[in-house]
Amino acid sequence: MFDRAYIMINVQPGQTSSVVKALAQLKEIKSIDPCWGKPDIIAVAEIADQDALTQLVLTRLHGIEGVVQTDTHMVYKLAESQTR
């Protein structure tokens, strides 16, 4: 079972296309949506755990030329509410 995270990515002007191509090469990235305004790109990642997310964002994404900043939101599951 994988966890999911939304990653908002800001890039240098004129670098969106090349960053999208680099993201497409990462198996953990499941969708990539370039956007108007900020963020420049919203990506959805499926990762095994928080350590894998840390590695993905801090090493691999920040290593892509043109990436300026990321804002990562890991999805959590709500507990089932108990009926009374």
Helix content: 25-40%
| Largest β-sheet summary | 4 strands, antiparallel
Q: What string, H for helix and E for strand, traces the elements in order?
A: EHEEHE
Q: Approximately what portion of the residues adopt beta-strand conformation?
A: 35-45%
List unreliable stretches of 5+ residues. none
Strand sequence of the main sheet, in spatial order?
2-3-1-4
Q: Quick one: overall form?
A: globular
- N-to-C span: 30 Å
Walk me through what this model shows.
The protein has two helices and four strands; from the N terminus they run βαββαβ. The N and C termini lie far apart (30 Å). The protein is 25% helix and 36% strand. The relative contact order is 0.31.
Structure summarized in a few sentences:
This protein has 84 residues and is of the alpha+beta class.
Keywords:
4 strands; 84 residues; 2 helices; alpha+beta; 4-stranded antiparallel β-sheet
Describe the SSE topology.
Blueprint: E1 3-11, H1 16-24, E2 29-34, E3 41-47, H2 50-61, E4 67-74
Antiparallel strand pairs: 1-3, 1-4, 2-3
